[in-house]
Hints:
Elements: H1 7-29, H2 34-45, E1 49-50, H3 51-57, H4 62-74, E2 78-82, E3 90-94, H5 96-117, H6 122-148
Antiparallel strand pairs: 1-3, 2-3
Helix pairs in contact: 2-5, 3-4
Amino acid sequence: MKKQLKIFHLLQLAHAALFKAADKKLKNELHISTTQLAVLFSLVKQDNAPITAIADQLNMSYSSLSGVIDRMTKAQLVTRQRGTSDARVQNVILLPKGQEIAQRSTAKVRSINHALLGEFSLNEQETIARFLIHVAQNSEQIVCEEQQR
């Protein structure tokens, strides 16, 4: 009988270990967290974005991201600005210091991606990517189906 993989547990262990190491490296070298880096990368793609759009993109709650943005504002990485058409909307704007950190981080992230996938064939890398995309896009359905069984 084939042993069943404990994927849920392995994903949790991998996520925790990877992001603990990445946070440590980023804090030592650039004085930011992985979450802050994700915000910077999001703003590089679309600057002056509503905080709700960034929260949706990063799969975070508005309140959690708001605290991250507050810390990034204090570090002069970003600034907040009220929306022009709706004063309730808070847009986040990338500042030069944040732009510079995002640019410096791009090569570091590529290197991490290469190290993560380096031991796998191209076909295996595509399978890993397909699996992770499947999990990201279908987590609610996967968990709800499990509860119904």
